[in-house]
Amino acid sequence: MTTPASPVAAWESLFRAQVAVMRQIASEFPSDLISLNEYDVLFTLTRCENRTVRIRELNENVLLTQPSISRLIDRLFARGLVTKLTDPSDGRGTLVALTDAGHALYREAAQVHGRSITSRMTTALTPDELTDLARLTRKLYTSVMAK
């Protein structure tokens, strides 16, 4: 019988695994196409209704600060990967929408990124362990987001 891990030990294990895997995946990321931060924004937009979201809501779903997101959106806009629109329900707000070119670039990067993720995850974990990991991390995420 194994001794249960303390919350601190479990967190440390999760954190170290995430950092190690992220470093490996980042080294294999197609950064010649797009940066990881740009990918994060495009990925988030693909999950939004009509591939459109208010900048404020985008900020809640990506791993960047508000000023960084604004600058990144400006760069994506300059490349034709997103458009910026005035929010019709609130003229002070700005909507960001993924363009067809942005979606195509996202999909191209996602294929490479997905293969890298799949390789790392399936090398270390069985299908049942992947299911357990997804369930546990969703549970942890939900508990944090509910507060």
Can you walk me through this structure?
The protein has 147 residues and is mainly alpha-helical. It has a single domain, classed as Arc Repressor Mutant, subunit A (Orthogonal Bundle), CATH 1.10.10.10. Helix content is 66%, strand content 9%. It contains six helices and three strands; from the N terminus they run H-H-E-H-H-E-E-H-H. Strands 1-3-2 form a three-stranded antiparallel beta sheet. Strand 2 and strand 3 (94-98) form a beta hairpin. Helix 1 crosses helix 5 and helix 2 packs across helix 5 (100-124). The longest helix is centred in the C-terminal third of the chain and has 25 residues, at 100-124. The chain starts with 6 loop residues before the first helix and ends with a helix. The mean pLDDT is 92.
The pLDDT mean sits at 92
**What pattern of helices and strands is seen along the backbone?**
HHEHHEEHH
> Which residues sit in consecutive blocks of at least 5 with pLDDT less than 50?
none
Question: Which structural class should the secondary elements be placed in?
Answer: mainly alpha
Largest sheet: 3 strands, antiparallel
Q: State the CATH architecture.
A: Orthogonal Bundle
Biggest sheet: strands side by side, in what order? 1-3-2
Please report the total strand number as a whole number.
Answer: 3
What is the strand content?
5-15%
List keywords for this structure.
147 residues; mainly alpha; Arc Repressor Mutant, subunit A; three-stranded antiparallel β-sheet; globular
Short note summarizing the structure:
The chain has helices at residues 7-28, 36-46, 55-61, 66-78, 100-124, 127-145; strands at residues 52-54, 82-86, 94-98. The chain is mainly alpha-helical and 147 residues long.
